[in-house]
């Protein structure tokens, strides 16, 4: 199980940026599966990314445990 939260900056053009907060969570004890990104300031403040994502663990995960988790997907902002 993993929960990663962070912040960052998106540069839309050389003069326009947005700051964001993000969460990636697979731990049911901390709210369950979540992948989110919310714009906290700058261009598009208040918008959220709506992800369409898929996760691919190592093929032997049921036998050996999670070694890696590949994430793929696309997102739109609302």
Structural notes for this entry:
The model has no long low-confidence stretch (mean pLDDT 82). The chain is elongated. It has one helix spanning 61-64, and strands spanning 3-13, 16-25, 34-42, 48-57, 69-77. A five-stranded antiparallel beta sheet has the order 1-2-3-4-5, with no helix packed on it. By secondary structure, the chain is mostly beta strands. Strand 2 (16-25) and strand 3 (34-42) form a beta hairpin. The chain has one domain. It contains one helix and five strands. It starts with a strand and ends with a strand.
Low-confidence stretches: none
Strand order of the largest sheet: 1-2-3-4-5
In terms of structural class, how would the helical and strand content be classed?
Answer: mainly beta
The level of helicity is under 10%
What is the count of DSSP helices, taking H or I runs of 4+ residues? 1
Distance between the termini: 29 Å
Number of strands: 5
* Count of distinct structural domains: 1
What portion of the residues fall into strands of 2 or more residues? over 45%
Q: Which word captures the global form?
A: elongated
Using only C-alpha atoms, the radius of gyration works out to 15 Å
Major β-sheet annotation: 5 strands, antiparallel
The average pLDDT value, as a whole number, equals: 82
**Order of secondary-structure elements:** EEEEHE
Secondary-structure blueprint:
Blueprint: E1 3-13, E2 16-25, E3 34-42, E4 48-57, H1 61-64, E5 69-77
Antiparallel strand pairs: 1-2, 2-3, 3-4, 4-5
């Amino acid at each position: 199980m993993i929960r990663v939260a962070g912040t960052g900056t998106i540069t839309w053009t050389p003069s326009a940026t947005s700051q964001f907060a993000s969460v990636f969570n697979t731990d049911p004890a901390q709210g369950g599966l979540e992948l989110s990104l919310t714009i906290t300031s700058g261009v598009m403040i208040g918008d959220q990314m709506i992800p369409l994502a898929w996760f691919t663990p190592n093929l032997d995960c049921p036998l050996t445990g999670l070694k890696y988790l590949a994430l793929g997907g696309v997102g739109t902002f609302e």
